[in-house]
Amino acid sequence: LSGLDPAQPYFQGTPTEVRLDKSDADFVDVIHTDSAPTIPNLGFGIRPAIGHIDFYPNGGEEMPGCAKNPVSQIVDIDGIWEGTRDFVACNHLRSYKYYSDSIIYPDGFLGYPCASYDLFQSGSCFPCPEEGCPNMGHYADKFKDKIKKDFMKFYLNTGEAKDFPLWRYKVTVTLSGRKKVKGYVNVALYGSGGNTKQFQITKGTLKPDNTYTAYIDAEVNVGEITKVKFLWNNNWINPTLPKLGAATITVEAGQNR
């Protein structure tokens, strides 16, 4: 039984007979997309974990792409009716859109077990544990024999628009060069499954021999990595023409560690 942002008003905090609960089926998975308090945030979705496994994409409250300006949202790519519904309840309706995308991407929407969204964002819950991570949505039940405790919360990020799944990587760059400069470092990944856009790994003071780490959510599952593109820029013309390179770049995929 899959709960697509089950309702908060009149249901949150009520007895289990009244609302969705994990006693309702052999396996209950829940996607929370609109779990901010109803007052004053107009959250329609229940906040506590109530299933065998509960997913909180993007933290479970505000979904990317839902803060578009009202006019562009109502005149949506999928038509005015769809756009108007999104304008009224965009976060709430994201749950079924993620679910329908999950059918097409069996390897997508990996949920990382974590105590909070902030810890997930900081990389504390990366990579997946040895038993792996469940896939939010249609294929969540593949995880049902790996449930270890009463309530399990999983976090992940999604894209702003269709197609929604993102794949998480840890990218670590050690710089080489003669002297420190100010600027930023970008990295793009190339692999058997496709290429990513450029992601900023760090900005500010760049010191040779220092190591910088970032967690990136890529729009493709890169697969086996074949190449990494490294770029740096100091944003202004420097007459000393400083040179900076990458001594090493390490990429770790969350999925298979």
From TrEMBL:
Membrane topology, as annotated? Peripheral membrane protein
Q: Give the subcellular location.
A: Cell projection, Neuron projection; Secreted; Zymogen granule membrane
What pathway annotation does it carry?
Glycolipid metabolism; Glycerolipid metabolism; triacylglycerol degradation
- Superkingdom assignment: Eukaryota
Biological-process GO terms, alphabetical: lipid catabolic process
Residue ranges constituting the PLAT domain according to the UniProt record: 167-257
The answer to whether UniProt assigns keyword Hydrolase to this entry is yes
Q: How is this protein annotated for GO cellular component?
A: extracellular space; neuron projection; zymogen granule membrane
> What Enzyme Commission number(s) appear in the record?
3.1.1.26
**Record keyword Secreted present:** yes
- From the UniProt record, list the reaction(s) this protein catalyses: 1,2-didodecanoyl-3-O-[alpha-D-galactosyl-(1->6)-beta-D-galactosyl]-sn-glycerol + H2O = dodecanoyl-3-O-[alpha-D-galactosyl-(1->6)-beta-D-galactosyl]-sn-glycerol + dodecanoate + H(+); 1-(9Z-octadecenoyl)-glycerol + H2O = glycerol + (9Z)-octadecenoate + H(+); long chain 1,2-diacyl-3-O-beta-D-galactosyl-sn-glycerol + H2O = long chain acyl-3-O-beta-D-galactosyl-sn-glycerol + a fatty acid + H(+); (9Z-octadecenoyl)-glycerol + H2O = glycerol + (9Z)-octadecenoate + H(+)
For the protein in the UniProt heading, the enzyme class is hydrolase
Instruction: List GO molecular-function terms, semicolon-separated.
Output: galactolipase activity; lipoprotein lipase activity
Check the record and name the InterPro entries matching this protein. Answer: AB_hydrolase_fold, Lipase, PLAT/LH2_dom, PLAT/LH2_dom_sf, TAG_lipase
Q: Which PANTHER family match?
A: LIPASE, PANCREATIC LIPASE-RELATED PROTEIN 2
Question: Which protein, by its recorded name, is this?
Answer: Pancreatic lipase-related protein 2
Q: Which organism is it from?
A: Rhadina sibilatrix
